[in-house]
Amino acid sequence: MTSLRITDVRPWGGPATDLHVVDGVFVATASSPDAEVVPGGGRIALPGLVDAHAHLDKTSWGTPYRPHSAGPSLASLIDNERAHRGDLGPVRERVGALLDRHIDRGVLHVRSHVDVDPQIGLDSVTGVLAAAAERAGRVTVEVVAFPQSGLLTRAGTAELMADAIDAGAQLIGGLDPAGFDGDPIRHLDTIFGIAADKHVGLDIHLHDRGTLGAWQIERIAERTEALGVRGKVTIAHCYALSTVDDVRQGALIELLAAADIALTTTVPGTTPQLPLARLAAAGVRVGLGHDGVRDLWSPYGTGDLLDKALALAVASGYRQDDDIERTARIATEGGARVLGLPDYGLEPGCRANLLLIPAESLVEAVTQRPVDRTVIAGGTVVR
Amino acid sequence: MTSLRITDVRPWGGPATDLHVVDGVFVATASSPDAEVVPGGGRIALPGLVDAHAHLDKTSWGTPYRPHSAGPSLASLIDNERAHRGDLGPVRERVGALLDRHIDRGVLHVRSHVDVDPQIGLDSVTGVLAAAAERAGRVTVEVVAFPQSGLLTRAGTAELMADAIDAGAQLIGGLDPAGFDGDPIRHLDTIFGIAADKHVGLDIHLHDRGTLGAWQIERIAERTEALGVRGKVTIAHCYALSTVDDVRQGALIELLAAADIALTTTVPGTTPQLPLARLAAAGVRVGLGHDGVRDLWSPYGTGDLLDKALALAVASGYRQDDDIERTARIATEGGARVLGLPDYGLEPGCRANLLLIPAESLVEAVTQRPVDRTVIAGGTVVR
What value of ipTM does the predicted structure carry? Predict the structure, then answer.
């Protein structure tokens, strides 16, 4: 039995207390006078940050800087990646470098979409899984088999996505069934079909805005209900929700809530943000993601999910403490509910995954994002 | 004569070179074998960052955290500030703490709007000037006498703004002549009148959006031309420019260029960004500002202008290197042109105000914003 006592910490920025851990799990009271002590020094304790929408396989983290080489269109971005991803070096090494950064910042759970296509096969999936396995116990990685280069428009991709599940991926992805792949009904029927065959959930990229996107949300909700996969479907980005009128938005949120479809945002720079308060009121689960980090799509990203929490707060126009605190909740508990993480939190019985941040308040943790953090995973200090 | 050699630096991220300084000014070639050496180590050299729109007097930097206490309306924000600003402690100390942070990050020039009203008189102006004087040679601060609580609607404010110039402020401010102060023509005539009497320039807050703001831009341009103050007027925020149609936007940009009116942006979270490329093509000067830092208006802000450069790049939807580099130029040269800073830059003859950043490229300096910087002001290493 190993015991840990984390003294003088403030869970969620609240009153100071001690946290007790036995065999990697929080317990209510100290069990051993010989417990290892981690002095909290009055710092804020948060459960591990959850990156609910990543593209680990694309990152160039740890490799030399290279100028952005794609044009502005989505097609150009995808073609540029297919042309140059081979130059970046092994997936396993790049992903490992980024996961090390995540651990360093307290990002202890990641859901990553990973490209699957006939050119690259399952190499990226196996590379990501290998990098994650090397860091087992410190960070968890859930893999979505993602048809980045098209599903219907790239023959053989659907079969590879099914194979990816057999190789260890946990979810089936999708990508703009109408706007990119060109045949929304066949696209959705295909991915829901694979997911049903494999008894896994889905996480579908949907950038399509306005009424086109809204119509696809309805189609996704229909299939979620019909196939009995309530609670197992996520829509990523979901720009449609913030680019339709208020009445349509309300109706869509009702559909999402009824089908228990989760959403993830990566805080777009030039699209209105998700209506977080309205989603929260309806009980829709929302997670936060870092999206790509320094890759062939853009040079942005730091690997610190609190940077995204700040961006979300600013872009949402928040000033009140409880609003800004909501973004920290989305970056932690919100993502955990999207991923369905068991035993997540700072309560007795939860796995002792947490970070300690030197900030006076939760708001300050978000606005200042100090990087000298203590990170504990499964009761072991890993940073 | 004091000499400095800064070896192996990459100006603007370009090829490595040595920079030579004599008596605080860059010179073309080494003049003394006894020069003090600052090893650049291949870092990027930028001239000092320029915060072209600050509210130094409002900051709570260096004081204990306090929850946000204002409601969402502009009137509530202003009333809340008037009720609580006395609790924050002496202006001089708070401003000094923030200026020290600025210097630490390489922000070496600041234009700050400073509140002037019958309740507070000139206390904030003299407090800011005192904190700046204590840091003379390390940072320059230009003060705008700012009618935060209303000009026409707060009797005695106009007279105090004139007094503020006598006390050391360099510019006359304004605030939403229509949307906040209620009488745009009388507001503009009053502030242009004071500026003409005192032979100083103007820097006018204009949040009013759409056609109301556009109409005021036209009135400001008329007065700038009629009173012969081309090149001495700035409009801050100028949300109207990004909330009118393209044709009107083009006509307004022509007016701004003709009157040589500068703009500053603080990267609003929920308003479209200024059309930077179109403004650059027309030759309109644009500077970047941090706006308030951790004050009664919002808890945001770090004192690092590169954080704002990143926000500007993301919110502008930039991915290309030259676009992202433009935001670094706006954070340096752009602001210097707005403030009319003499001898600004890394060329021989310029004052040796610079920062060294460990980044591979200028894009990476913006996206990653490493904080372990060397800062040199007037040829002296200050950090």
Answer: 0.93
